[in-house]
UniProtKB/TrEMBL annotation:
<dbReference type="InterPro" id="IPR017850">
    <property type="entry name" value="Alkaline_phosphatase_core_sf"/>
</dbReference>
<feature type="signal peptide">
    <location>
        <begin position="1"/>
        <end position="20"/>
    </location>
</feature>
<dbReference type="GO" id="GO:0004065">
    <property type="term" value="F:arylsulfatase activity"/>
</dbReference>
<keyword id="KW-0479">Metal-binding</keyword>
<keyword id="KW-0732">Signal</keyword>
<dbReference type="GO" id="GO:0046872">
    <property type="term" value="F:metal ion binding"/>
</dbReference>
<protein>
    <submittedName>
        <fullName>Arylsulfatase</fullName>
    </submittedName>
</protein>
<keyword id="KW-0106">Calcium</keyword>
<dbReference type="Pfam" id="PF00884">
    <property type="entry name" value="Sulfatase"/>
</dbReference>
<dbReference type="InterPro" id="IPR000917">
    <property type="entry name" value="Sulfatase_N"/>
</dbReference>
<dbReference type="InterPro" id="IPR050738">
    <property type="entry name" value="Sulfatase"/>
</dbReference>
<dbReference type="InterPro" id="IPR024607">
    <property type="entry name" value="Sulfatase_CS"/>
</dbReference>
<keyword id="KW-0378">Hydrolase</keyword>
<comment type="similarity">
    <text>Belongs to the sulfatase family.</text>
</comment>
<feature type="domain" description="Sulfatase N-terminal">
    <location>
        <begin position="39"/>
        <end position="356"/>
    </location>
</feature>
Length: 458
């Protein structure tokens, strides 16, 4: 496979630049946990949910009272990014705090893929084992379907869910491997009854919380929806004015409400950080393969609240997603911030809160954002790199975003776009000609970073 880098297309010298500070260690060995009051962590991760799909992010007809309440009880981020505009690389980065290129998973992988999350990578779940956290993964994994890549071999005590996307079966994907529901490494249901997946994921999640209420736990609940084909349970069919897609989102909102109600019932609210986000933007402009029968329609997708682009693109519509953090007594309620942060920051933040050292034998691209979440400081995140597959396509620094549009056949005709993301979050007005020095400086930074990242992988 031919890989194109920023350096391949830009005709400029590469200045010496500092790579993101190297951090952390090899896989940790469990030690006796002397702090029984270490915080619990729950990550609720939707699939293909758009920036504008929740009421608290502006949707006019989808009702999400539980997520709206969660946002009002914590902080709602309006410039929150994922590390890639598609499933596999985004999820690898969430769990490791590292850009997809570093994890070896810059592209989506399918059934029976020969690759998956490398054993050398340290997941949040593996790191938390140093403090003897109970860990569970529920829902979509999509980091390899071979047994060695299974969640139970990546730090999770238990797994219940689908090993990849719910469309990775005929007629949408040409594969002989049946889509199955797994418990740990055993397939327990085929064909999968997708109408009840969200409900069953929720039941397993609340059961896990109840079982481990007396010790620190980490729950990673990755919904299979609203990735197409979309399904809602009978209780939510016809529930939303926004049609079937709205039904799916409102059932996810119900699920979030059940998780939060369980925490409150058990007196765990003030001991538990809960995060809600999505793996990438909505899957608009789906390929023809998705319309082989009447079960998927072009409108079975979310919206970006006007952000340009969608899933698979490095415009903000592909990588800016809802980011809601709730932790009563620690994260002040009622906060809304346009400061940047990303899913890369979750790994170092959770480890720091658990009093676990950040690995020092590898680059961790995220940073600890707890002081920002607590309202003590502005966000420490001032720049973000937008990779699609192996190519660095865009770079944001504070309010400015530079997006590089390569012409692979004729590099000298490649163009640059410069947007002010504070005044023009919809990336409508290219101001590159107005600020040539800023374009040159940001292009050089972008090139330096990409060059050094590639050198570190050799």
């Amino acid at each position: 496979m031919k890989k194109y880098s920023v350096v391949h297309f830009l005709t400029m010298s590469v200045a010496t630049g500092a790579l993101v500070a190297s951090c952390s260690s090899a896989k940790t060995q469990p030690t006796e946990d002397n702090n029984k009051h270490s915080p619990n962590f729950i990550i609720l991760f939707a699939d293909d949910l758009g920036y504008g799909d929740l009421a608290c992010y502006g949707h006019p007809t989808i009702k999400t009272p539980n997520l709206d309440k969660m946002a009002s009880e914590g902080i709602r981020l309006t410039s929150f990014y994922v590390a890639a505009p598609s499933c596999t690389p985004s999820r690898a980065s969430l769990l490791t705090g590292r850009l997809p290129m570093r994890t070896g998973l810059p592209r989506v992988i399918g059934p029976e893929a020969s690759i998956g999350l490398p054993a050398s990578e340290i997941t949040i779940a593996e790191a938390l084992k140093e403090k003897r956290y109970a860990t569970m993964c529920i829902g979509k994994w999509h980091l390899g379907d071979q047994e060695k890549f299974n969640p139970v071999n990546n730090g999770f005590d238990e797994y219940y869910g689908l090993l990849y996307s719910n469309d990775m079966q005929p007629p949408w994907v040409n594969t002989d491997k049946p889509l199955a529901l797994y418990h740990n490494t055993e397939a327990i249901e085929h064909p999968v009854i997708q109408q009840t997946l969200t409900k069953r994921y929720t039941e397993w999640g609340t059961k896990f919380i109840r079982t481990h209420a007396d010790k620190p736990f980490f729950l990673y609940l990755a919904y299979s929806m609203p990735h197409v084909p979309i399904f809602a349970s009978d209780e939510f069919k016809g529930h939303s004015r926004a049609g079937e897609y709205g039904d799916v989102i409102e059932e996810i909102d119900w699920s979030v409400g059940q998780i939060l109600a369980t925490l409150k019932e058990l007196g765990l609210d003030e001991r538990t950080m809960v995060v809600f986000s999505s793996d990438n933007g909505p899957w608009q402009e789906m390929p023809d393969r998705m319309f082989g029968n009447d079960s998927v329609q072009p409108w079975d997708c979310g919206n970006t609240a006007g952000l340009r682009g969608h899933k698979h693109l490095t415009f903000d519509g592909g990588q800016r997603v809802p980011g809601i953090f709730r932790w009563p007594g620690t994260i002040p309620a009622g906060q809304v911030s346009a400061d940047m942060a990303s899913t890369l920051d979750i790994f170092p933040t959770l480890l720091s809160l658990a009093d676990i050292s950040i690995p020092e034998d590898r680059v961790i691209d995220g940073v600890n954002i707890i002081d920002f979440l607590e309202g003590k400081t502005p966000s420490p995140v001032h720049q973000f790199y937008f990779y699609r597959h192996e190519m660095l396509q865009a770079y944001r620094r504070d309010s400015w975003k530079l997006r590089y549009l390569p012409n692979e056949k004729n590099p000298e005709k490649s163009t640059l776009q410069l947007f002010n993301m504070d005044s023009d979050p919809y990336e409508m007005y290219n101001r590159a000609k107005e600020f040539p020095e800023k374009v040159e400086e940001m292009t050089r930074t972008m090139s330096d970073f990409d060059e050094q990242l590639r050198e570190s992988l050799q």
